[in-house]
Amino acid sequence: MRNHKIGIIGTGAIALKHAQAIACLANAELVGLFNPNPSSAARAQEKFSVPVLSDWEDFITIPDLEVVCICTPSGMHLEPALKAIQAGKHVFVEKPIEVTLDRADQLIQAAEDKNVKLGVVFQNRFSTDFIQLKEAILDGVFGRILMGNAAINWFRDANYYSSSQWKGTLTYDGGGALINQAIHTLDLLLEVMGEVDSVFGKVKTTLYPIEGEDLGAALVNFKSGAMGTITAGTSLYPGYPERLEIFGTEGSAILEAGKLTAWNVKGKESPILKAENASTSGSSDPNAIGFELHAKQWMDFLQAIETGNQPEVDGPKSRKSLELIWAIYQSSKEEQLIRFLFSE
User: Fold this and answer.
1) pTM higher than 0.85 for the full model?
2) pLDDT tens for residues 111-123?
């Protein structure tokens, strides 16, 4: 069995999730991490069982290093990813792909030019229940889809922002609740609802002294003729599990914290058992999420490398949720409907 050697750029909480996920894989090995700050690298060494390096050349020349995982702040994805791509490495980037469409496009183009794989972490696509929902929609189980709603009504305390130099900033986070917390559920919404025709949105900063938004809402019109709503926040105490609602002419379903909690189709019994659908959510604690879905997405990405196929979430797919978020920001700024195709 092929043994893929993986390195991680970044040593924060999300890097640890990826390290735990990689440790579960029979065909992968974490061989090193990179943090350019020597003191930070030394402190991080306690968390990881492999070398944590502060010299780029030492990191990128680790023998047989094949994949680099980018776990830096969102607005700092591009530069290390480009360096890894130029070194011929496949790149697996934490969400969002970047904080602006221009920076995202630079990364997508670089990977294409160098003919390396580019994947973006949207692990919630690999939830068994979401896959079941997606397949049912494609099979027409719910009839013609009329509406899709996404609610990411979360809460973060003041320390979440005050203890970080990048969270909630425009340069390094790209914004706030939409681009950081809500983007996972928006990715799922777009995956099942299809292309966007137009959006009208409003964002506000209501609770914390941050540059980005801690509250947002939007009305989405899809090219299929369906409608949708989005609500998101990090100021909504105490924080409730993220929720995706799908309504069609023949029935509806609700996905909450990655688990199906409702499934109603005219004249048919529900295939879900609610007692089996308890789950965890990052609604009030960002560290509450597990790493199991990350491991599933890692398996998909490594398989794409082996087969030459595209991973489930490549650069262009990951760009769609970023485009929707930037359209909402633009709509809020201009106080008008934004039509697609949209560019910031």
Assistant:
1) yes
2) 999 999 999 999 9
